[in-house]
Amino acid sequence: MNDAEIKQAIIDIISDIAPDEDTSNLKPDVRLREQMDLDSMDFLDIVMELRKRYGVNVPDTDYMQLATLDSCVNYLRGKLVSKTAKV
Amino acid sequence: MEYDAVIIGAGMSGLAAGIRLAMFDKRVVVLERHYVWGGLNSFYQFKGRQLDVGLHAMTNYVPRGAKGKPLTRLLKQLRLRHEQLDLHEQSFSLISFPSAKLRFDNDFENLRGEVRRAFPREIDGFDALTREIVAFNELDLDAPQISAREVVRRHIRESLLEDMLFCPLMFYGSAREHDMDWDQFVVMFKSIYMEGFARPQAGVRHVLSLLTNRYRELGGELRLRAGVKRILTRENEAVGVELQSGEIIEADHVLSSAGLVETNKLVNGERGIGVPSMSGHRPEADATGKLSFTETISVLDAPPKTDATIIFFSNRDRFEYRCPDKLCDVDSGVICMPQNFKLPKPIDPLVRITNIANYAKWTALERGDGSSEVLIPSEWKVSGIRSQVSGNGKAIPETRYPIPDTSKTDTYTQAKQNFYEHSVAAVTPAHLPDFRSNVQLVDMFTPRTITHFTGHEGGAVYGSPRKSRTGETGIKGLTIMGTDQGFLGIIGAALSGISMANRWVLKESTASEPIA
Question: What is the pTM for the complete model shown?
Answer without folding.
Answer: 0.89
